[in-house]
Give the backbone structure.
Amino acid sequence: MTPVLSVLVHNKPGVLNRITALFMRKGFNIQSLTVCITENPEISRMTIVMSDMDEAALEQVIKQLHKQIDVLKVTDLTDQARVARELALIRVSSPIAERAVIHSLIEPFRANIVDVGRETVTVQVTGDAEKIDALIALLRPYGIRELARTGLTALPREAASSADAKRSGEAQVLHI
Amino acid sequence: MPGMSKPADDETLTRSGEGGAMWMKGADMVVEALRREQVEVIFGYPGGAVLPLYDALYQCGIRHVLTRHEQGAIHAAEGYARVTGKPGVVIATSGPGATNLVTGLADAMMDSIPLVAITGQVAKTVIGTDAFQETSIIGISTPITKHNYQIRHASEIPKVFKEAFHIANSGRKGPVLIDIPKDVSGEEAWFAYDDPPQLPGYQPTVVPHHMQIRKLMHGLQHAKRPVVLAGAGVLHARATEKLLAFVEKYQLPVVQTLLGLGSFPASHPLCLGMGGMHGSAAANKALYETDFLINLGARFDDRLTGKLEHFAPQAVVAHIDIDPAEIGKNVPTDIPVVGDVGEALSMMLSIDVPPPDAEAWREELLQVKRELPFWWVQDGPHIKPQRLIAEIARITKGDVVVTTDVGQHQMWAAQFFPLNQPDRWVTSGGLGTMGFGLPAAIGAHFGQPDKLVVAILGDAGFQMTLQELAVIGEHQLPIKVVIVNNSALGMVRQWQELFHGERYSESLLPWQPDFVKLGEAYRIPSARVERDEELSAKLEAFLREPGPGLLECVVDPNENVYPMVAPGAGIHQMVGVKP
């Protein structure tokens, strides 16, 4: 199980440090972490993806987060229906003669070329981690020069926001 | 009052604004906030970054106790908090002053002691430039405080102090640090203190869910081998009378944690004493064999549980704790109850269920209690440390505040000093801080000035903070310093004897200062006792003499703490339950 937590926090200096210090102190490993402001400028949303852990450890993470004074809400998106997206920028070797191949590879991913040079193109792709991993694997043979990923950001789906959204053993993530 | 502007220059600086707000300087605001929080005593040490604050404190009417080290100040604040239930207040300057608080903050965090620590900081204009005595105490203290603040403008002071005292002394109590840049002390702003704290991210559950309490009471009536485990949560909740009423109503045996001592009278027939690594045979038998364990505000620390798979293996576990993160953390819990122990006990007392049929179990435990008490063997002219503690208890009739350091003498004090009341026992449990006992005794004195304070210390721990003798000498405080001198880091020595082939690596202290002369240098009447036959008389004279005193007690250097559960063993695997 790869836990995904959505955490609303006060948008104040030092809050990120509090959260990461907590993860370090308790020995929890973060796979990705995004922080950005929400519709309310005083509140930020952190989307935290953690390394695999069991239920008890995840429960402890959530409880420890709740203890932070600057944490307003913790939503466990692990098994909830969610919209989860990540953006990646992939600079790939692409002599002019091979550009058409790159175009045809990225097209089904609804990815775009956002920068063009003589030797390389930069591809922008959004989606969940698996989709991005798949595109990276496809592009790797052509020579990936540089890669930047944002990490996951997520919201629960409207249908799942109701109070009775239950956690089942099986992931309810809807893929598009 | 951010919306309110500064008064015109011709108006007086303390003129009242809207809703009784006052226009004040930052440093005066700090003092005013402490006054509003009814702070009686501050422990601290001045320095450059807190000069404006100390100027405001000068002749302000709040007592300030000048320790000789910031670590002494914060342990004193802990001692004060422990015996009063009120937050201890400590002030230190920036940089080294602030870093010297670190051990005390970590200690208070582990033992849930309410503290408000105020540190100076370099001026805002130079923060981040490696200015003289600059350190990021916010970064340093984040993992060892319940919360911390750096004030960016004087206008934040009332709100921050209000929140800090509220956070420190509610929910699971703990230390809160407020870092104040030097220039903030000179800024002026409106001061209003009447608004309640607004903390949407901090809403501790105080009243437990009634369904969980019902479940607990339902389970209790069917138990055959019920046990109550009383932790420090009972003391923090000031619920000792409710605990006594509940225990007597259902005739339940009681085990206490180290920090829970005093939550239930040691003299009570149902009291089995302390459980855990150096707990009593009866207490550990109860924890091992119980089928229904009611944990009241203890956090199932490893020194209590021993190896987890052998801890209460057959029990339905009910755990009442104000910190939900403690429930299920170490021991799987069947009946989780989040809330204040006092509220929980009130609800438990309001539900009447038939008492459990546990007569045989009770008898079995009480028989073990009778047959396997804590013990020592008097086998020579040496003073036995256990008898020393027992004698202190006998002579004082237990009517004193006891503080300890950490190690063997701490365990002997826990075993042989019967605590029958709350707020009489000050010890460093979770962090195990050597050097805690002496400064904590000073704080305990200011919390309970009418009580004699006996600081039971090891020779090694005493030497970590002995400079605080100056405070005792200067104010001639009624604190009796008992040095249990075995010329060793006794507990380290004991573990090396038992688990490291008697290789006493750096644990023996054959060279010692002259403790008597040391005490006398601080103008504290001091004496030494070395032989068992003279112990009672000398101890009696020492304890009866008014004012401060120091007694070096040279004890048997080879004495070990028993019974013992070896590290990694289950609590039923005790060695040394009898001579």
Observations:
- Chain A touches chain B at residues 9-10, 14, 17-18, 21-22, 24-25, 56, 59-60, 63-64, 66-72 (CB under 8 Å).
- Residues 85 and 127 of chain A are 5 Å apart (CA to CA).
